[in-house]
Write a structure and sequence with these properties.
This protein is α/β, with parallel strands linked by helices. The protein has ten helices and ten strands.
Length: 275
């Protein structure tokens, strides 16, 4: 097929199904070029080791389901130990899912708040009743966890009238929603020492996800970009007011350390907290 024929075919497809244009716009290559042109960060954020960010090289993750939609063990390790380093930590997260992250942090924080879409909003989005029933599965019965419902596009963050020490953004990962969540968190929820973590900044620990990365950069005030890091061996980006030793992301990475992993399989008991 000639180039002209391909072009006309593409135009016909777009006329019949305009939503296909979103797939063209949202390709990772396009977002990478956007980040490179606007922020000169085509290679991603500088990397900080987990040990440097958390101040520890050992820990146990009490709740991990090994199911779809969750974080890596290293992401949980990051959140738990960031919380443990903050006396009386107040934790806020966007995106509850099964409640693994907040359940793990709750063991180290004084109080946790997690925000997720309401049942009605999830039903309207076409999510199944089984999916909806699993929201907060591991966290619903924990005494120091508050579950809020709402859409971050119109949720009244200012009405919370509270600042948080550690914030985890893990909601809708489309660029505009990452930008929205970032803007609102920094407008209403942070204080001068707050640490903010974005999940799925990376597709894997060696490869940034550029639509999410662009949303972070577009949503964060430019003077704070210097405080952005990639937490090594995780999918997470971190805003930290502290200074850290960094290195450039390499792909593939030549390991400088490894992890010892032990597993214990524990049954979920009805009516009992799962952590």
């Amino acid at each position: 097929m000639s180039k002209a024929a391909k072009l006309f075919k593409a135009i016909r497809l777009l006329v019949r199904q305009p939503s296909l244009l979103n797939h063209v716009i949202d390709t990772d290559d396009n977002w990478r070029r956007y980040v490179e042109k606007r922020y000169q960060l085509a290679d991603g954020l500088p990397v900080v080791s987990l040990a440097d960010l958390t101040g520890t090289s050992a820990g146990e993750i009490p709740v991990f389901a090994f199911l779809d939609g969750g974080s890596l063990p290293s992401d949980h390790f990051l959140l738990m130990n960031l919380a443990a380093n903050i006396k009386g930590c107040k934790y806020f997260e966007i995106g509850t899912w099964r409640g693994e992250s907040v359940a793990n942090v709750a063991a180290h924080a004084a109080h946790c708040t997690t925000l997720n879409l309401s049942d009605e909003q999830m039903q309207a989005a076409g999510m199944s009743e089984e999916y909806i029933s699993l929201i907060g599965f591991f966290s619903n019965q924990l005494p120091n966890v508050m579950h809020l419902r709402g859409d971050t596009s119109d949720f009244d963050f200012a009405g919370l009238n509270k600042k948080y020490d550690l914030i985890f953004i893990d909601g809708d990962h489309h660029h505009e929603m990452v930008k929205n969540d970032t803007q609102k968190v920094f407008a209403h929820l942070v204080h001068e020492r707050s640490v903010v973590v974005w999940h799925d900044y990376a597709r894997n620990p060696e490869t940034p996800r550029f639509d999410v990365f662009a949303g972070i950069l577009d949503g964060l005030p430019p003077h704070l970009h210097k405080n952005l890091y990639h937490a090594g061996n995780t999918l997470s980006a971190v805003y930290s007011p502290a200074k850290h030793k960094t290195h450039a992301l390499q792909n593939p990475v030549r390991p400088t350390h490894y992890f010892n992993v032990g597993l214990t399989i524990s049954p979920v008991l009805p009516g009992k907290p799962k952590s």
